[in-house]
Amino acid sequence: MTDLMAKAECDGKVVNTALLVRDRRVPPAGARVIIAVFESGELRDQWLTTARQFMETFVAGVGWAAAMDKPSAAPLLAVALGGGVV
Questions:
Q1: C-alpha angle with apex 34: 30 to 38, nearest 5 degrees?
Q2: Which of 1, 5, 6, 32 could form a disulfide with 69, with the two C-beta atoms 3.0–4.6 Å apart?
Q3: Which residue range(s) make up the domain with 76?
Q4: 6, exposed or middle or buried, with CB in 10 Å at 0-12, 13-18, 19+?
Q5: Number of domains comprising the chain
Q6: Does residue 8 contact residue 26 with C-beta atoms inside 8 Å?
Q7: What single string gives the DSSP state of each residue in 16-35?
Q8: Total-model pTM
Q9: Continuous H helices in the chain
Q10: pLDDT tens by residue, 29-57
């Protein structure tokens, strides 16, 4: 998880299986980002389904997903972490 945090150039802390970060440069404007790491794609997809009740913007890759409060941040985070906007 800390590797994803470093790639996104974020400050934050590990909270159980999720990482809550405030970004310095990516995504812009200090977007609130929650990055969660999963053992399987099925668990990631279940998390995304549930998280859509609370947030609208997501980026995901193999074994991880991120939710954020600023849609403009998603493409930049996707590039930084090697995932896609979902």
A1: 150
A2: 32
A3: 2-85
A4: exposed
A5: 1
A6: yes
A7: TTEEEEEESSSSGGG-EEEE
A8: 0.74
A9: 2-7, 41-51, 74-81
A10: 578 888 888 888 998 999 999 999 999 99
